[in-house]
Design a protein that fits this description.
Length: 411
């Protein structure tokens, strides 16, 4: 007799799969929109990445969906501005390979190795840094400016109304929404902000009318750039730890211990390969989606084959040219309003990581590690290695790992 968590591919589950993609859609397309990548490519690589993850873990497939990772927004934005998209993609491919290396180290040394190398006292402040570094971008966009604040794209008075309405709707839906609506606050916020933007006459549909219904996504191949690789590689540390949390969450929901079978050595391998393959096509790095895990919790649809259907739907939608054209019409203040909440939540998750681990801040060792990660990450400290500027989240993460390894434990 089949268990609810057994893989069972059925045509009738295709509608459920589309529903789960709908839950992930807002966050999935937000990352490429913010970083200059193609949302249709992100849809394609989310589908391909999820299918690859399922193949790697075919002995016991967790019911999760992989899509665009928020942890990489800052490094992708910096990389695209500094080296261009193809060079930045080489750094993202390398980030995926770091997951693969970690998965093989876990095979050799066991799960405890990862926790010793990356304890909560390191991971927590790195996650906080990601949210706080991104916050000025959110504020600028909410005020109708470009992410760096250099150009006013939408009049301030209109922009602030649009962004605050988008933010308010997102918060209210996340707090008061019932059923499926509670799982799509980002999408509802985008829709609400979009409607207000229509009222102000800020939407130009000319490119939508000229776009083809069927169009090849704008695939971009990586170009090797060791500067981009050195800059981006350390940032993969935070989502690697996030992966463990997501595996624990889906295990708790389904009452199936995925940390035991297929095990982190396989799930982390699948996640890493999905990230590298996504970057080979020009898409953002993949990560396991907590929103979809929430949908699994509500619907109690534990069959992993439903995620196969979600992946197939994502791949098919990637070739709808008009979808990409519509996404491109979303005004800056709409995205800025959503980002105000999202980037704040990322920082809060870092605080939660420290809180759950009961980090003792009366201990000078812990204080030193956390404070140095935050100041080096957010303060703008830059080291140069062979002409490569090493700064931001990656520098903070490496400082934290180094201090954790060399500072003596409290007696």
């Amino acid at each position: 007799m089949m268990k609810p968590t057994d893989y069972n591919f059925r045509v009738k589950d295709s509608i459920l799969g589309l529903q789960f993609l709908f839950v992930a859609f807002g966050a999935l397309v937000l990352v490429p929109i913010l970083t200059g990548l193609d949302p249709n490519v992100a849809l394609f690589t989310a589908g391909i990445g999820t299918l690859l993850f399922q193949f790697v873990n075919r002995s016991c497939v967790p019911p999760i969906f992989l899509a665009s990772s928020f942890a990489f927004i800052a490094p992708i934005s910096y990389g695209v501005a500094t080296w261009g998209i193809p060079a930045t993609l080489s750094g993202l491919v390398a980030a995926g390979f770091l997951y693969v290396v970690l998965s093989f180290l876990i095979r050799l040394k066991g799960d405890e190795f990862l926790h010793k190398l990356l304890p909560s006292v390191v991971v927590g402040p790195v996650i906080i840094s990601i949210g706080l570094i991104l916050s000025p971008v959110a504020v600028n966009m909410a005020m109708g400016k470009t992410g760096d604040g250099a150009v006013q794209l939408v009049p301030f008075d209109q922009a602030i109304i649009i962004s605050m309405i988008a933010l308010t709707i997102t918060i209210l839906v996340s707090l008061l929404g019932k059923g499926i609506f509670k799982l799509i606050p980002i999408l509802m916020g985008i829709i609400g902000g979009y409607i207000v933007s229509l009222y102000f006459g800020l939407i130009d549909f000319s490119k939508v009318s000229t776009a083809a219904w069927f169009a090849m996504p704008n695939f971009v191949a990586p170009e090797f750039n060791w500067q981009a690789i050195v800059y981006i590689l350390p940032i993969a540390i935070a989502p690697a730890i996030e992966h463990i949390g997501d595996m624990l969450a889906i295990s708790s929901v389904t009452k199936q211990d995925y940390l035991k079978k297929p095990g982190l050595k396989n799930t982390l391998l699948g996640d890493g390969l999905a990230t590298s393959v996504a970057s080979l096509f020009g898409g953002p790095p993949n990560t396991t989606y907590s929103e979809v895990t929430g949908a699994v919790t509500v619907t109690k649809a534990y069959n992993p084959a439903i995620m196969t259907w979600a992946a197939i739907c994502a791949i098919l939608l990637a070739f709808v040219g008009k979808l990409g054209a519509i996404l491109a019409t979303i005004p800056v203040p709409v995205m800025g309003g959503i980002m105000l909440l999202l980037f704040g939540i990322i920082a809060t998750l870092g605080i939660s990581t420290l809180s759950r681990a009961n980090i003792d801040f009366s201990c000078p060792r812990n204080m030193a590690i956390v404070s140095m990660i935050l100041v080096f990450s957010i303060g703008g400290m830059t080291f140069n290695f062979g002409g490569v500027p090493f700064a931001g989240i990656g520098l903070g993460a490496m400082i934290g790992i180094f201090l954790n390894l060399v500072l003596p434990k409290a007696l």
